[in-house]
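One-letter codes give the sequence; the integers encode the fold. A sample entry reads:
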Amino acid sequence: MTIFIIYQSRQVSWSLFSSAAN
């Protein structure tokens, strides 16, 4: 379950980073 939470947070932070870079 913890791995799923970490994966979710990484997905969110990566999408935020991508939108900020554009």
Summary: The CA atoms of residues 1 and 7 lie 10 Å apart.
